[in-house]
Amino acid sequence: MRFSFIVIAGIALVGIILSVLPTPEVQPVPTENDARPASWPESGRYQIVNVTVFDGQQWHENTSLSIEDGRIAESFDTTNTSDIEQIDGQGAYIIPGLIDAHTHSWGNALKQSLEYGVTTTLDMFTDLRFFTPKSAERNALSLRQEADLFSSGVLVTSAGGHGTEYGIEIPTIASADDADAFVAARLAEGSDYIKIVYDASASDADHKGRFTSIDYATLSAVVKAAHANNVLAVVHVMDLVSAEHAAKAGADGLVHTFGGTRASDELIAQMTSQNMFVIPTLSILASIAGEGRGRALVSDSAFSGNISADVEYAIVHDIASSRISDDYFAIALDNTRRMHEAGIQIMAGTDAPNQGTAHGISLHDELALLVDSGLSPTDALKAATYLPYSRFAIGERGTLQPGARADFILLERDPREDIRHTQSIRAIVKNGFRVASLFETKVETGETPESGLVSQFESDLLPQLGNQFVVSTDNIMQGDSTASISHVEAGCGGSGALRVEGRIGRQFPYPWAGTFLMFGESVSSGYNLSNFKRIVFDVKGTPGQFRLMVMNPQTARPSEVSFDVTGECQSVSIALAEIGGVDWRNVAGIGWVAGGSTPEFAFELDNIEFE
């Protein structure tokens, strides 16, 4: 059975909307926890000795690594080391900073990636409002707390095609005649390469899929236009026929493999002859198949016990589609194996943060999946280091040859023995500076309130716990939902309430409108509510299902739980433990919102309290 996962591969883009709710996105700022560890050299010139180094292509036993001004240096003269600080690596294994060759990035994605040793991420579709400022920062050699970002920017799709459904207004292409201008516009926006979405079946007369697709002529024209501008053209496909068309059109690579159908010998031969590469994204295919990879990372990996609540929640909930064949994932692994055996370059990419994946952590499991599909541990490391460097124009990243950026990881254990040893991180170095790893990052804890009473709204809307109630709608993503908030004298307690009323629009596919309680001036700080067990509130209004949303600072999206409203006052009690993915030690705010099931709504909130 052919299964289309192009729907899934963009749903996570909704996170960029929610990451800025209800105020514009707050960019990460350094905190005390981000400070460089005192044990690391203060100068920009130092040497790590007594280490085994993988430079992206070869292993070097019992050697040293020299760093100068944020780059890998030639070996220093060992006869005169008085001005060189030395670090005893104590037998550590050094590999280049990892590269995730398929992500969708926004919010805290780059910071989270770096905490797991992913120093560079290749994004395959994000909002230009996120990408543009990040791309301007990537060439600095200063202390940074985020991975470097390269991106396709806006993908190439048709009107009504995949990528148009997320509320982000994007340009689309109508025909092959538009290819040159369309590619030129993407490159003018800053795109580093061109990503194309293509579904051959959309041209079938009996096509019943949700999305349209560009036709083959347009696919071919866009590939040619990209090559005329000396940039890569990569293609998102979902089945064998689409992959064969992409190869025929001359694409440089496929950014997914596929399950359910065995790759044809003709496809593999053509990909080999054209020196194509593939980014299998086995992590997302495993999620589609319900393989439980995330649960294994949580319970039985070097990361166990150190995974944040939001990351754990993201990776343990697989998509687990019932629409795929039982051998879907096994075929995807076999397709990867056969391509690798044919000499096709395999690169490591996760499609994070789609359901069942998360930035940074999932790349370590992607390496394990590549080994499961037949790559050696060293080949898997090349897939996440040298090979992306060799094909994408990302500068000296993914290699530790002299002149390369000093992005690398010190490992406690040898990944040649077990690829899962990439999880045994001793230190992460970015631009020559040691940065906080997952194991060193301390959890920021918000202020602990003395009382859990939020408000009884006796005279106004000012909360006793928190900063203010604000209107929150999907307008930020060009949605047309509306809402207003006001104080009313008669609430469920008879002494005042917060009234919310509005309308759910149709311009955004995941609409919302309601109110949000800000705990601080912005969503960058919050309260420690871990000593409370539940939230209770009184509510009445338009009968239907509404949502309670909880947001941590800098998380990609809020967690949520549904509650029912009737025309009569009722008390709602929700156990905090029921709301997955929340770190209750630092909560930025809570929202009460309506969705598509209540297009015209009004409700009143009263007696809100944490118990």
Describe the structure.
This protein has 15 helices and 26 strands. The strands form five sheets. The protein has a seven-stranded mixed sheet with strand order 3-2-1-4-13-14-15, with no helix packed on it. Strands 16, 18, 19, 21, 24 and 26 form a six-stranded antiparallel sheet that branches. Strand 2 and strand 3 form a beta hairpin. Helix 7 runs parallel beside helix 8. The longest helix is centred in the middle third of the chain and has 14 residues. The protein starts with 7 loop residues before the first helix and ends with a strand. The N terminus is likely disordered.
Offer a concise description of the structure:
The protein has 611 residues and is α/β, with parallel strands linked by helices.
The chain-level mean pLDDT equals 90
Oligomer: single chain
Strand neighbour order, sheet with most strands: 3-2-1-4-13-14-15
Going by helix content, strand content and strand pairing, the class is alpha/beta
Radius of gyration, in Å, reads 25 Å
The percentage helix is: 10-25%
Our estimate of the beta-strand percent is 15-25%
Based on Cα principal axes, name the global outline: globular
| Low-confidence sequence ranges | 1-38
Largest beta-sheet details? 7 strands, mixed
Give the N-to-C terminal Cα separation.
Answer: 50 Å
- Say how many strands there are: 26
